[in-house]
Design a protein that fits this description.
Layout: E1 7-13, E2 22-27, E3 31-37, E4 43-50, E5 64-65, E6 80-83, E7 94-103, E8 106-114, E9 120-129, E10 134-143, E11 149-154, E12 157-162, E13 166-172, E14 180-185, E15 189-194, E16 205-213, E17 223-230, E18 235-241, E19 246-253, E20 260-262, E21 268-269, E22 272-278, H1 281-297, E23 308-310, H2 312-315, H3 321-334, E24 338-341, H4 372-382, E25 386-391, E26 395-396, H5 401-405, E27 425-426, H6 432-448, E28 452-457, H7 478-496, E29 502-504, E30 522-523, H8 531-542, E31 551-554, H9 562-569, E32 573-576, H10 585-607, E33 609-614, E34 621-627, E35 633-640, E36 662-668, E37 683-686, H11 687-692, E38 706-714
Parallel strand pairs: 23-24, 24-25, 25-28, 28-29, 29-30, 31-32
Antiparallel strand pairs: 1-7, 2-3, 3-4, 4-5, 6-11, 7-8, 8-9, 9-10, 10-21, 10-22, 11-20, 12-19, 13-14, 13-16, 15-18, 16-17, 17-22, 18-19, 26-27, 33-34, 34-35, 35-38, 36-37, 36-38
Helix pairs in contact: 6-7, 8-9
Length: 717
């Protein structure tokens, strides 16, 4: 076999009729999963944890099956259940072969399993990302029976964990209160985290979690798995503690109402489950995942982002060309890169003057915009501002020309009243004709107006009373094929417009997953932009998502000062959705300076390692910092929340710096005419001092709803 410099291919194939024994190693720089092939041809997971020497693994023997099946002797929750074409509901998966291929820092392992009686195969895939210490895993299911096989369960992953205790950290919420974090001890039995919503699937449950071993993990201590599923549809996690206190974590598409009829020779590929193992707490797990996302999942993950001004708060759906042109002037005055035109610009027979009409009719409203979108692009460009636009391509209002023309394109039950969410219905993306229509919305917009530089893609309702005319007698394929249809559209868009920035929005944070980030450059975390609430929301997202994906806008929501709201937005991807013409002279000067300051520090925020120093769940303040790879520059954020008399804050110990370097500590983003009151402001201190002795960022009697941003820069003495 020819061995190329960039690729090493190792292929091991079992000999028919002879059982193979041996070990399969999935390894990164610091993590390992080990499987052993038994004499009974079963593949068992015998280890997961910190990477050891190969000789250490020889002592391991007891393990559990890599991909538990239903219908045989397994009495626990299966990863897969299949009903064969002859009605037999059993499956037995035995080792057939495996191969490993290394490309750069990524090792791809494939473990092929087969049933000894039926021509049914499952291939379990692993991609190990060496430097980031992240592993993603998925399965491919196929068969060569004469008729379709019904799959009723089809997990992406099954991991076995062994410890005395298990602690689950999950994130839940609702509209305007996303990613609320809770932690609980897992006891014997099954706990499920799942969504059945079809679209906006993260509306109530977020598909991210930590499982800590032995005790709850802190930021810097504890052994844990941090996991998430790359799937923008229904998901399900099953955590089962058995009678021997072993824990199985099963991840994948939610099989609810989704029996899949797999045709002969068709390959069913499950979504990717992405996880990292950390023996040093949640902080290390976050940094691993952030780096992996930026380098391997996020579209243009290391490319600078634009700062935008949105018109929604200033105008809602009531505007005309003159009013928008005035807002272009405000955007130019503020110094942002982009103006984003939000909802309300389209529809003629049914103008979009509120949320009750117009969705699906993507023509500029002639009464509001007589010269079309092209005129707006030109006017914005003349002021040195790029132009972006809001779309909601997957949805339709009953009061629309699209609804009247194509009732067969809409998901709705026959013989039942229509069920609305936000006065709208969902288009049937299982239908190729609808996929073409949704693609054409973007393509026509960009072809007619090539100067458009940004799209906000919204999705404001979940699926209820859903039925596809196109699928006919295969309604159980609806949830899966809808998501695949969305991906098909996005692949086409990205093929033609590979670097067009697109924000993913879903009535707030209803869509936040790693697979979506392959097609979108950022997401809208929540419609709740109250800065105090946003500290918790952005904190929750920060466990799994890098800051350049988390859109954070300065708005007028809440009762905090403009500085506090701006400082909170700066911890993510800052933007504005506020009436600039209402600013005082000091507020306008502060905001213009803030845009410049953010531009100067954003590279550290977007690409730096995140250290969460003090959690708002533990104290009435939140402190976090970003440190660049060279450890030459850091940015620290300090937020005082609603303080009480008993609050007595100690010094904050910094993290991530080089102890042998010296750093200047300087407060930035101050209001014009004010100076810092921090005792250590403008001092030069060693990294060792900053991390061991700390700094006082709550001098005297700190006030509620105040904040500080501190730049820490390497400075030769």
């Amino acid at each position: 076999m020819k061995i190329r410099s960039c690729t090493i291919l190792l292929l091991l194939i079992s000999i028919a009729g002879k059982a193979q024994t041996g070990s399969i190693f999935i390894e990164t720089d610091n993590t390992a999963i080990v499987y052993k092939i038994g004499k009974d041809k079963k593949v068992n997971q015998v280890y997961i944890g910190n990477k050891l020497s190969r000789s250490d693994y020889t002592e391991l023997s007891a393990g559990r099956e890599i991909y538990l099946t239903a219908g045989m002797d397994n009495q626990l929750e299966p990863a897969i259940r299949a009903v064969h074409s002859d009605g037999n509901p059993s499956l037995d998966l035995q080792f057939d072969s495996y191969q490993q291929r290394k490309e750069g820092d990524i090792t791809h392992t494939q473990i092929r399993l087969k049933d000894p009686v039926y021509p049914f195969n499952v291939t379990v895939h692993f991609k190990a990302y060496t430097r980031e210490d992240v592993i993603k895993t998925w399965t491919e299911i196929s068969h060569k029976e004469k008729q379709p096989v019904m799959l009723t369960q089809y997990a992406s992953s099954l991991l076995h964990l062994n410890a005395g205790q298990y602690w689950l950290t999950q994130f839940h919420g609702d509209w305007a209160r996303e990613v609320q974090m809770i932690e609980e001890k897992l006891s014997n039995g099954i706990k499920n985290i799942e969504s059945k919503l079809g679209t906006r699937t993260n509306f109530y449950q977020t598909q991210t979690f930590f499982v800590s071993l032995e005790k709850p993990s802190s930021e810097n201590e504890g052994k844990l798995i941090a996991g998430t599923l790359g799937w923008t549809g229904n998901f399900k996690y099953t955590f089962e503690v058995d009678q021997k206190n072993g824990l199985r974590v099963i991840s994948g598409i939610n099989p609810f109402a989704s029996e899949y009829y797999l045709a002969p020779n068709e390959v069913f590929r499950t979504p990717e489950f992405i996880f990292t193992y950390s023996a040093k707490g949640k902080g290390l797990a976050s940094r691993n995942l952030h780096k992996w996302v930026r380098n391997n999942a996020l579209l243009d993950g290391n490319v600078p982002r634009m700062t935008l001004l949105n018109n929604w708060e200033a105008t809602h759906t009531s505007f005309n060309e003159q009013r928008l042109t005035e807002l272009f002037d405000e955007a130019h005055k503020l110094g942002v890169d982009l103006f984003l035109l939000d909802d309300g610009w389209f529809g003629n027979k049914y103008p979009r003057n509120d949320d009750k009409a117009g969705l699906g009719d993507w023509q500029p409203d002639r009464s509001k915009l007589p010269n079309g979108i092209g005129k707006l692009v030109k006017e914005a460009s003349a002021r040195g501002v790029k132009f972006g636009i809001w779309l909601e391509p997957e949805m339709v209002n009953p009061k629309s020309e699209l609804y009247e023309t194509h009732p067969d394109w809409i998901l709705k039950l026959p013989n039942r009243p229509e069920s609305y969410g936000r006065n709208q219905l969902v288009l049937d993306l299982t239908n190729p004709a609808v996929q073409n229509f949704v693609y054409s919305i973007v393509d026509d917009m960009m072809t007619e107006n090539p100067g458009i530089a940004f799209i906000k893609w919204d999705c404001n309702r979940s699926m209820t009373n859903a039925y596809s005319t196109y699928l006919k007698n295969r309604q159980s394929h609806l949830y899966i094929n809808y998501t695949k249809g969305l991906y098909s559209v996005m692949k086409r868009i990205r093929k033609k417009y590979p670097h067009l920035p697109i924000m993913l929005c879903a009535g707030g944070g209803g869509r936040t997953d790693y697979k979506a980030l392959e097609y979108f450059t950022e997401f809208w975390p929540s419609d709740n932009t109250d800065a105090l609430e946003r500290i918790f929301i952005q904190w929750g997202y920060s466990y799994f998502f890098p800051s350049n994906t988390i859109s954070a806008h300065v708005t007028s929501m809440g009762k905090q000062s403009l500085k506090f709201r701006t400082d909170v937005a700066m911890m993510g991807k800052m933007g504005y959705d506020i009436r600039i013409n209402n600013f005082t002279g000091q507020e306008l000067e502060f905001s213009k300076n803030a845009v410049k300051t953010y531009s100067e520090i954003s590279d550290v925020i977007w690409k730096g390692d995140l250290y969460r120093l003090i959690s708002p769940y533990d104290q009435n303040r939140a402190v976090l910092m970003y440190v660049n790879d060279a450890q030459s520059r850091a940015v620290l954020f300090n937020y005082h929340m609603n303080l009480r008399k008993k609050d007595n804050f100690s010094k904050v110990l910094l993290e991530g710096l080089n102890p042998s370097k010296s750093y200047r500590v300087r407060e930035i983003n101050l209001l014009p005419g004010t100076s810092s009151t921090l005792p250590d402001n403008n001092k030069i201190l060693s990294g060792a001092y900053l991390m061991e002795a700390g700094i006082n960022i709550a001098p005297g009697k700190p006030q509620s709803l105040t904040s500080n941003i501190i730049e820490i820069t390497e400075t030769p003495i």
